[in-house]
Amino acid sequence: MHPSDFMNEYVVPATEAWKADQPSKHLAIHAISQIDILAEVVASHIGRKAGSYRDDLGQRFPALAKIRDAHDSHKHGQLNRRNALFVSQGQRPDEAVGHGFFLGVTHLSGPLTPFTYLALTLNDGSTEKVYTLIKDGMDAWVQEMAALGI
């Protein structure tokens, strides 16, 4: 399958489905998985081995390294590959609570309004918003595919 076809048939619909239902953990994992699987499709298309291509991608685009780790850790639990730097203990997106200012909801003299979102806990204990991870991953693929002329 051509990488642009895979992007249009699998990756974009998976990310759009998650955007429409952002609290959904299974849709978040599905989107993350499809973004990662695209690396195998592109590697095959350009005649590279998937592992080394993913290593190169991760060096250039940290979001894709995190997505790779998240996808593999979701599938396999604890990872023992040496380059699983960000997610390797079986972490999956989980609900987190943030606080923000929302017009018409937050009163100027009151506390910030709480909201929930999905976050992925990284190995170092920090968290990455799933929205940011997916957006950065998609942006990375736009750059990579343009650079490859795909």
Question: Concise description?
Answer:
With 150 residues, the protein is an alpha+beta fold. It has helices at residues 3-20, 25-46, 50-60, 62-76, 130-148; strands at residues 94-100, 113-121, 127-129. A 3-stranded antiparallel β-sheet has the order 1-2-3.
Care to describe what's here?
It is a single chain. With 150 residues, the chain is α+β, with helices and mostly antiparallel strands. It contains five helices and three strands, in the order ααααβββα. Strands 1-2-3 form a three-stranded antiparallel β-sheet. Helix 1 (3-20) runs antiparallel to helix 2 (25-46) and helix 3 (50-60) packs across helix 4 (62-76). The radius of gyration is 17 Å and the shape is elongated. The model has no long low-confidence stretch (mean pLDDT 86).
Secondary-structure topology with pairs:
Elements: H1 3-20, H2 25-46, H3 50-60, H4 62-76, E1 94-100, E2 113-121, E3 127-129, H5 130-148
Antiparallel strand pairs: 1-2, 2-3
Largest beta-sheet details: 3 strands, antiparallel
First and last CA, distance: 12 Å
The stretches of 5 or more residues where confidence is low (pLDDT under 50) are: none
Q: Name the assembly state.
A: single chain
What is the radius of gyration computed over CA atoms, rounded to a whole number of angstroms? 17 Å
- What amount of the residues lies in strands? 5-15%
- Please state the overall shape, judged from the principal axes of the Cα atoms: elongated
Number of strands: 3
Structural category: alpha+beta
Question: What portion of residues is helical?
Answer: 55-70%
Count of separate DSSP helical elements: 5
- Can you list the strand order of the major beta sheet? 1-2-3
